[in-house]
Design brief:
The structure holds 2 protein chains of 2 kinds. By secondary structure, chain A is of the alpha+beta class. Chain B is mainly α. The radius of gyration of chain B is 25 Å and the shape is elongated. Classes of the chains: A alpha+beta, B mainly alpha. The interface between A and B is medium-sized, with 17 and 18 residues.
């Protein structure tokens, strides 16, 4: 069964400073953690895809009524915390395993090496046929 | 039972034989799109038979034979269908006039020129080139570009259709169009190289090595056009750039900028080859953008340590490049070279002039950040590094810029 593990810019508790205030070592440790987790999931045959998205500054919102020119809104957006930062798609044997992987991702290290307790949204991907 | 052929051997044989078979069929039948479909089917057949039975004596001939049979069968059933529908006698398959006889290397050029058709987007031309000339399977190309195989198959088939429906069908371009078409071919090869070079930072081992593939294609084109200096220039540029690959990423796949690379890791053999090819091309006297870029790469390769780089020479080369092929990225690089040769203030002054054209481009902000850092303006540099990090579309680059800003902030 496939799951999307989604991570937005918000979803970290109050008091965790943004990455632009971390030390280089803390940033490095965080990046390495994410890479290691991906490598481990790939090794276990569970990783479908892991992607980081470009920054909110490059985001655009598009609305169209289907006929005229679409309405395109550029950033920066006041609610950029709601924007997606990245995702992992995993293919695992059970929902429990998806939760386990999400929990690992949530505890990624931040300032002082402490887990940042990032909220991970876990969404099962719909299949073609119920089985 | 052990396979009769070592693993990978069949792929290698096919990669070499398939483009030749395709060219032969295009000559015989005149229809690129149908010939390509038939060769793909023959390759699937080969991938099934050859590993167990051993490859045929003449792999190209085998593919031509199997694919022609399919094409003839298809033409017959098509004719039969028409006959049933129209109740007319089945027409014989009309023989098509063969294309002019092949000279060595002509086949590759023919296919390359066809794939880099002016009606195609660069992405489509690249996909078609990798398949028709590079002999890669659709699955391999799909993996290389990280899209599903069905998507890539569709992109290729739509590309073929676009060309068939364009006013100018698949054929060898007239002599007057060849220079322009060759530029398109070189551009496609360079795109393939850059895609591979950028991806190599991701350390995704499952992907086909597109950089190596681009170098292989450039070698083939150069064999076909040995006197064409820009083809040689492109090949030299790619060899000299690829030589740095072992040094450009750290243990964890992180980006290492040119001035911090361990130059002992650079591949001296590739550098030597690139320099030799470049020297021969430059001697022909028709300088072009790829030769100039290769000359700049060769200057970097010459310096055993970053401090030994001859920035005045590089600045002069960028000046020439700006005359031959002016573009905002070239102007940006020239400003960086000016900063290295004449001091950061000179570079910043040049960047200021570029501001409007490149505003919002992460490279502009990244260059400005580096130069501000050298002038001692820490706040300005941090601001520009962060701006660049927010604008880049490359993850390793974003990581690098974010860390660089953090290091400066700490002081």
């Amino acid at each position: 069964m496939k799951f999307m593990l989604l991570q937005s810019y918000g979803g970290v508790p109050e008091g965790v400073p943004p990455m632009s205030e971390w030390t280089p070592e803390e940033i490095e440790a965080h990046i390495d953690f994410q890479k290691d987790l991906n490598a481990e999931l790939r090794e276990r045959g569970e990783l479908v895809e892991a992607q980081a998205l470009t920054a909110p500054q490059l985001a655009k919102f598009v609305v169209s009524d289907g006929s005229g020119a679409p309405l395109v809104t550029d950033g920066p957006f006041p609610e950029s915390k709601e924007l997606l930062a990245g995702y992992r798609m995993i293919d695992v044997d059970s929902p429990e395993r998806a939760i386990e992987i999400a929990a690992r991702g949530s505890a990624a290290p931040g300032p002082g090496g402490r887990p940042i307790k990032q909220t991970i949204e876990v969404r099962e991907v719909m299949g073609a046929i119920e089985h | 039972m052990a396979p009769a052929v070592r693993p990978g051997r069949v792929e290698d044989l096919l990669r070499e034989a398939a483009p030749r078979a395709l060219a032969a069929l295009v000559r015989r039948f005149g229809d690129f799109a149908d010939a390509d479909d038939a060769v793909q089917e023959a390759m699937i057949e080969a991938a099934r038979q050859w590993p167990a039975e051993g490859p045929p004596e003449n792999p190209t001939g085998w593919l031509v034979h199997v694919a022609s049979r399919r094409m003839t069968d298809r033409a017959r059933s098509e004719a039969a269908r028409r006959a049933r529908e129209q109740a007319v006698a089945a027409e014989p398959v009309p023989p098509l006039p063969p294309l002019p006889a092949a000279e060595p290397g002509d086949d590759t050029l023919l296919l390359m020129f066809m794939c880099c058709h002016p009606a195609l987007s660069p992405a489509s031309a690249v996909a078609l080139t990798l398949r028709a000339v590079g002999g890669l399977t659709t699955a391999e190309i799909a993996t290389a570009f990280l899209v599903p195989e069905a998507t890539m198959a569709q992109r290729i088939s739509r590309a073929k259709k676009t060309v068939q429906e364009s006013p100018e069908p698949f054929r060898m371009p007239a002599a007057s169009e060849r220079a322009e078409r060759l530029r398109a071919v070189l551009r496609a090869i360079y795109l393939i190289f850059n895609e591979g070079y950028a991806a190599s930072a991701g350390a995704d081992l499952a992907r086909v090595d597109l950089s190596a593939e681009a170098i292989r294609l450039a070698r083939i084109v150069r064999l076909a056009l040995p006197r064409e200096p820009e083809t040689a220039g492109l090949l030299a540029l790619m060899l000299l750039t690829d030589a740095r690959r072992p040094a450009r990423t750290g243990e964890r796949g992180e980006l290492v900028p040119l001035e911090e690379q361990d130059r002992e890791l650079w591949d001296r053999q590739l550098i030597e080859e690139g320099r030799t090819i470049l020297a021969t091309a430059l001697a022909r006297g028709a300088v072009g953008e790829y030769q100039l870029q290769a000359a700049i790469a060769a200057e970097h390769a010459k310096a055993r340590r970053a401090e030994e780089t001859d920035w005045r020479e590089i600045l002069a080369l960028y000046g020439l490049l700006e005359k031959v092929a002016p573009s905002p990225p070239v102007a940006l690089n020239r400003a960086i070279a000016a900063a290295m040769a004449e001091g950061p203030e000179a570079g910043l002054a040049q960047l200021a002039e570029l501001g409007e054209e490149l505003e919002g481009n992460h490279r502009l902000h990244s260059a400005r950040a580096h130069l501000l850092e050298r002038t001692g303006d820490v706040d300005g540099a941090v601001r520009e590094y962060e701006r660049a990090a927010a604008l880049t579309r490359s993850l390793p680059e974003r990581d690098y810029l974010t860390k660089r800003a953090a290091r400066l902030r700490r002081g």
